[in-house]
Model the fold of this input.
Amino acid sequence: MVIVIATIKDIAKLAGVSPATVSRVLNNDAGLAVSEETRERIFAAAEQLQYKLPKLKRMKRAGDMARRQIGLLLMASPDLERLDPYFMSVRQGIEAECSELGLSIAAAVRLGQAEKQPLNHLDGVIVVGSVSEAEIGSVYGNLQRAVLVDHACPIGGCDTVNLNFKLAVRIALDHLIRLGHTRIGYIGGEEALDASGNWQAGTRPAEFRDYMAGKGLYAPELVKLGEWNPDGGYELMRQLLQEDNRPTACFVGSDPMAIGGLRALHDSGMAVPDEMAVVGFDDIELAAYAHPPLTTIRVYAEQLGRSAARLMAERLDGREAAKHVTLDPTLVVRESCGAANLKQ
Done:
């Protein structure tokens, strides 16, 4: 039995093009100007001749992906990205994974710029942060091609990538309770948009309330919400200190807010952690250099972004059912909680 192995010339003859064109198409040469019809004809001819079938499928998939263009819809302003590196890390994770996948990011739109730069002409959109369904719809109409990252309100048909907030809150509060704290406050930002586009309390304070209520320890007067920045953390911590029966520990919704809160404690003459233990959220680089170094929840922000890019690639490759990815956080123990040497 003689096995005939197809060659580039055989494909070229069957497809009616030159061998050079076949070679460049099969190798996804970005500099080649060729019609989609010609490209499909070449791959069909190669498949008909059974030309390196496993490799051919990978080559075709890579070529398909390279021609797809996606957009980013970002809740965080450039100023917020600067103040809270979490959002920048998520975006950088998306960009890095898209680069490795050969997927092109054609545009990035900040919240509030949707009318100026719609993205309906693109193949998909990755949304970072709690953006309302109406806002997403004004930018991009096909929700089955939208991947939501760190989005507090689920939207039917969309892929999602989220942190396991329930676990994050539990391990932070378990740690503080294990250290003997029962009166624990929470400060954080308003983080979720409802169907009408109004800011709501969001996931972190809700999980805090549920956990503390389950322990019989919830005190609503110890929950303070404001701006997601160090100034917000400073002001909310000062409000917390004005309570008649102030807490002995505080869980803070982001590290930049926690750093602002630490400054408020220092300015008020409160010793950390002796008079107030503090646990942050994110584990940004500066957390280790706070005074004192900040105990915090590590959330793997870049991995959230990379996971979103992979979900988008799967959608573009034909997956129809929505998929939801949840990443578990870990606790990083430093000096601000009073248990830097406690092993987890």
About this structure: The longest helix spans residues 85-101. The chain has a mean pLDDT of 81. The first strand starts at residue 69 and ends at 74. The chain has three domains: 8-66, 69-163+302-327, 165-300+330-337.
